[in-house]
Amino acid sequence: MEIVTQYTYEKKWSKISRHEAMNIIEKEMPETDVEATWEYILAEVKKGKTITLGDCRFRLDAESEK
Total domain count for the chain? Predict the structure, then answer.
C-alpha cells in the first residue's frame, strides 16, 4: 500500500514515506497527536477516501492498487 500526498497548490501527487507524513502532520496540525492522526489517515484512505489536513491531501496511490 502506497500513500501519496499533494499540497493544495500542487498539481502532481507524490509518494510519501511514513516519516515524511509524520513531519507533514506535525507541521500542519501541531496541536494534534501525530501518531493517532496518521492511523486515522491510513484507516480512511484504505476506504478510498482522500483526507485533507491543512494544505495537504493524502490518498492511496492508484498505481499501487493495480
Answer: 1
